[in-house]
Amino acid sequence: MGLIQLRKLAYRQLEPSAWPGKGLSPVNFGLIILIVFAVIEAVIDTEPVISNGRERLLNNVEFSIGIIFLIEYIARAWVEVENPRFAKYRFPRLRYMMTPIAIIDLLAIIPALFAFGGAPSLMLRFFRVLRMLRLAKLGRTSKAWVLLREAFIQKRQEFGLILGMLLVMILTAGSLLYWAEGDAQPDKFGSIPRAMWWAIITLTTVGYGDTFPITPLGKFLAGVIAIMGVMLIALPTGLFAASFTEAMDREREKEATNTAVREALKKAKDKG
Hints:
14 helices, 75% helix, 0% strand
């Protein structure tokens, strides 16, 4: 088998859209299992009851996972010349390495370099948390994650508009509560930034209860703001649900078309 044939074979194994069969390729299926295992190992590693006395074992496991992910990263960069998305560029591999998912892949490898200690405590905790980025690697192999990304991209302008409205509401609500409650509760509403904390918690419907108005005017304004917050938060939920449904419908139509084409080619081949 030549090098080009080997690269094409590896590309079909690593790129979900290039896999001719149903579901995932064996390599991507194995990577999903490894990602889940790696995240579980990262969580266990932070629990002293489990990790104490097993540091060497966990470090070896982490280092081994990092080596596998490094090989995967190199292999994906190597096969990207087969990807129509990047093949049109002068440096397709470099173009791929600048994509967000490739950067996430690289960041998922870095914690393995610190598996054998030597880093300050705060830095070590940071790299332990960084290992959670490996969950994002599932987005490459999961059609559901791809559809979620497409749904968000399709409605990105609408989501941007809603985010802008939310920021304006937070600033307005914080200003109003500063005006109504500033004298009564200077420690909580004595400035607009302090009042904006209450506005964020209220508009997002979290409601910690650590900060709340006590004056009649403040309570009235808080009631109006809370109702508007519920209405505003409901907007992106419905928008995202509709966009996700549209993306699923397009995917079904695409699969139906591909199936029809394959069946037609098969019939033509049988007749020939």
